[in-house]
Amino acid sequence: MNLYDQLRDPLALTVFMITLTLPVLVGFITMRKTRNQSDFFVGGRSMNRFVVALSAVSSGRSSWLVLGVCGMAFTRGVSAVWAVVGYIVVEMLQFVYLGRRLREETQVHDSITLLDYLESRYNDRSGMLRMAGALIITIFLTAYVAAQLNAGGLALSTALNIPLLSALVIAGLLVLVYMLLGGYIAVAYNDMIRAIILLAGLVVFPIYGLIQLGGWQPFLQVLQALNPALLDPFSLSFGVIAGFLGIGLGSPGQPHIVVRYMSVKDADMLRFASVIGTFWNVVMGWGAVFIGLIGRGVFGTVEALPDQNSEMVYLALASRYFGPVVYGLLIGGIFAAILSTADSQLLVVSSTLVRDFYQKIFLPRSRKQQKEPCEKEQLKHCRRVVLGAGIVAIGLAYMAKDLIFWFVLFAWGGLGASFGSALIFSLYWKKTTRLAVFLGMITGTASVILWKLYLADATGLYELIPAFGLSCLVLWVTSMLQGHRSIRDR
After folding, report:
1. E strand or H helix at 63, and its extent?
2. Cα torsion for 208, 214, 219, 225, to the nearest 10°?
3. In Å, what is the CA distance from 279 to each residue of 53, 64, 82, 273?
4. How far apart, in Å, do the first and last CA atoms of the chain sit?
5. In this structure, are residues 3 and 16 in contact, taking their beta carbons and an 8 Å threshold?
6. At 482, is the secondary structure helix, strand, or coil?
């Protein structure tokens, strides 16, 4: 099956190219609103609730949903739904509770990054929280961005029948252009537009697919004939189900998601945002699962898919079912998912390098620089670092070999275990100390890496779960042992 055949149609190619270049137009429109560093990284804390809701959801889903979950549902059946349940529940609560409190606290401390907040919250003049956090973010998020661009390059290469390197460069440049123009504001509005495009694809596919298979009952009969386990939500082991539910534990620790809460105009807006965001999450999650199931019913085996890759089921179904206009839009939906996460993560990497490394760690220790650059110079630094980080990510994406689903889960787990527990403790337990936060982040990072390397295969348990638990334990024990210091550290 050559998916490029569909895009030879002028209509399909036109629609597809519009979805690719629309973000650049948004970048030009929002450029005049980006006047300083706060605008570039958190939208000047002036974003409305609808944009924040869709941007938070869109930036968290990525290729993992459109390619990974669809592919998993194709292989494992309806049990793939456990991979989306955990984060849907956690993010619903996160909007209302953690998000509101974080928005209020970052306003009080005038923080524009997560590490700004932690340093101010604990009056960390040593800089150990910022240095450790910046290193963790740079490692995990750069790899995360590379995974997204790798997924985008793969999809673009398959759709347009061009070399992978060329596809990676195109995908990377599309992200970089509008980010350089409008920063966070451009990213947030593009994420909102992409969430709508993605939702359309994940709703149209299951409905049309069921119609083509003759309705609900024939659809179930086809899957039953292929393998009864495809219809059993409990066909996975307890450990695997627990691991998938544990994916939700990573949401509070994702800097590219929590920055959305920091950017909203008013903390009270997050209640409405939670309703919109949860609805989008549920529809998109189930849509991805049904696309995988319908693909299994249509193609039967993975050998019938392009490159015998289950993660290509979305592309294959789009090519099989739809005419040029809808096909061009649906293929654009893949990039809606991939780029909406890549741009958000790249922005966090850049804010870490500019704000946390350069301005807050390097400059204070440099004898050559006695004062901070002016706002215009800071904005130039931001754009230079975005460009440099994007080029590095494209290079890493070209060398990436891991499967999209599992590679993203590893980076998600590393960030979740490192920052999720630390952020929750800092917001909700006043006895938490500076040293406890530092050790909690280090423990979370080390535990994810060690569990993945030595225990994941033997236990079948997703590394985020034990790492998150160990990080919480270290936070609690250290804070209790330092109880007399907690007031001073606050």
Report:
1. helix 49-63
2. -140
3. 10, 19, 17, 10
4. 61
5. no
6. coil
CA distance 185 to 174: 16
CB 184 within 8 A of CB 40: yes
CA distance 471 to 428: 16
3-state secondary structure of 47: strand
Give the HSE-up count for residue 477: Cα atoms under 13 Å, Cβ half-sphere.
Answer: 9
Q: How many CA atoms lie within 13 A of 74 on its CB side?
A: 30
Q: Are 430 and 272 in contact (CB under 8 A)?
A: no
Single pTM value for the model: 0.83
State which amino acid sits at residue 283. Answer: V
DSSP 388-427: HHHHHHHHHHHH--S-HHHHHHHHHHHHIIIIIHHHHHHH
Pair of tokens at residue 489: 């550290």
Beta carbons of 277 and 88 less than 8 angstroms apart: no
pLDDT tens digit sequence for 365-419: 665 555 555 667 767 777 788 888 888 888 877 776 545 556 677 888 899 999 9
| DSSP letters for 71-132 | HHHHHHGGGGGHHHHHHHHHHHHHHHTHHHHHHHHHHHTT-SSHHHHHHHHTT-TT-HHHHH
- Written as six digits, the tokens of 324 are 């040029």
Q: Count of alpha carbons within 13 Å of 467, Cβ hemisphere only?
A: 36
The per-residue pLDDT for range 208-266, each reduced to its tens digit, is 889 988 889 999 999 999 999 999 999 888 878 888 888 889 899 998 888 889 888 88
Q: Whole-angstrom Cα distance, residue 50 to residue 273?
A: 6
DSSP calls for 137-183: HHHHHHHHHHHHHHHHHHHHHHHHT--HHHHHHHHHHHHHHHHHHHH
| Nearest-angstrom CA–CA distance, 253 and 453 | 21
β partners of residue 47: 264
172: Cβ–Cβ under 8 A, 6 or more apart, which residues? Answer: 149, 390, 391, 393, 394, 397
- Is the separation of the CB atoms in 403 and 147 below 8 Å? no
Q: Exposure of 485 by Cβ count < 10 A (0-12 exposed, 13-18 middle, 19+ buried)?
A: middle
**Whether 444 contacts 140, CB under 8 Å:** no
Q: Is the distance from CB of 341 to CB of 61 less than 8 angstroms?
A: yes
Structural domains of the chain sorted by starting position, each given as residue range(s) with its CATH number in brackets: 4-411 (1.20.1730.10)
